[in-house]
Design brief:
Layout lengths: L1 H17 L1 H26 L1 H13 L7 H18 L3 H33 L4 H46 L5
Length: 175
């Protein structure tokens, strides 16, 4: 229990050093990874049933070569593909937004440094160090969030592409 309290105190100190932008980066990262895990859960739990429903619907058709059959196949693939690709654009947007929020933290921290310079004339290095810390911590946090999100985003996108391709391959227009 003491280790947990120490860890929470360290996180609180880091958030205090990083400024308010660090809270936004933390919230963004939480939402981003929630969406990534939601996609992984969907792929593991629901996707197979939806693919099987589409396959059953396709296999129950008496013919598969007409223009109408082609449109039905396209609709089946599109319906499943829409569900497979849900939230992928949002994840990519959050990945791109993380370093931008880090840069916003850099700007706010540097503004604090310039304010200290204006007031003290540059003689108070300790006060300037606080602003530099507020400038670098959010940048680092934004980059860590973005890099971790890139890996998660790439992984779920590859799964989505593979599942879409497999569905298209299984829905053959053979008879």
């Amino acid at each position: 229990m003491l280790a947990l309290m120490d860890a929470l105190a360290a996180i609180e100190a880091l958030l205090a050093k990083g400024g308010p932008i660090l809270l936004w980066i933390s919230a963004l990262t939480l939402v981003m990874w929630t969406l990534i895990f939601e996609r992984l859960w969907y792929f593991k739990s629901s996707l197979k049933g939806e693919i099987q429903t589409a396959l059953d619907s396709w296999e129950s058709r008496p013919e598969r070569k007409s223009w109408n059959a082609h449109q039905v196949r396209y609709a089946l693939v599109s319906r499943v593909s829409e569900k497979v690709n849900a939230n992928l654009d949002m994840i990519a947007t959050l990945v791109a937004l993380a370093p931008l929020l880090g840069l916003l933290g850099t700007v706010t921290g540097m503004i604090e440094v310039f304010n200290v310079l204006a007031v003290t004339g540059g003689g108070d290095a300790k006060s300037m160090a606080g602003g530099v810390s507020k400038a670098t911590i959010p940048t680092m946090a934004g980059m860590v969030a973005a890099l971790s999100g890139v890996f998660g985003n790439t992984y779920v996108n590859r799964i989505a592409e593979r599942e879409n391709q497999l569905l298209e391959d299984h829905l053959t227009m053979d008879h």
